[in-house]
Design brief:
Blueprint: H1 3-18, E1 29-35, E2 40-49, E3 52-64, E4 67-73, H2 79-85, E5 93-95, H3 100-103
Length: about 110
């Protein structure tokens, strides 16, 4: 299995796990959205909280240039650490929501 195929499957598996979490405080639906053609992967939460419609992105990951770009993570889980535990090199993970000037202060890729 080539690296991109492996990374795509790992990302999808991790994101699918998040669709099983359900809050006791609301009835929001959690969806995983996979665009394999453009290599965009997201988990979104949507639905009604009382009289307000809610729709927001919990997690957004892209695969670019043989790297996993974590573009957004609004969960308490360290997805980058989870990926490393699954065998992904830290140098193949970019924390995209960190400023480029600070990325070199981590063990992860700069870009």
């Amino acid at each position: 299995m080539d690296k991109l195929t492996k990374y795509r499957q790992l990302v999808k598996n991790i994101l699918l796990e998040y669709t099983h979490y359900k809050s006791d405080s609301n009835d929001l639906e959690i969806q995983a959205i996979f665009d394999e053609e453009r290599e965009h992967y997201q988990v979104v939460s949507l639905g009604w909280e009382e009289q307000k419609y809610v729709h927001y992105c919990l997690i957004h990951i892209d695969l670019k240039a043989d790297k996993i770009w974590i573009q957004w993570n609004m969960t308490e889980q360290d997805i980058a650490e989870d990926l490393v535990k699954l065998g992904v090199s830290a140098k193949d993970i970019v924390i995209g929501f960190h400023p480029p000037t600070l990325r070199n202060l981590t063990d992860y890729a700069i870009g």
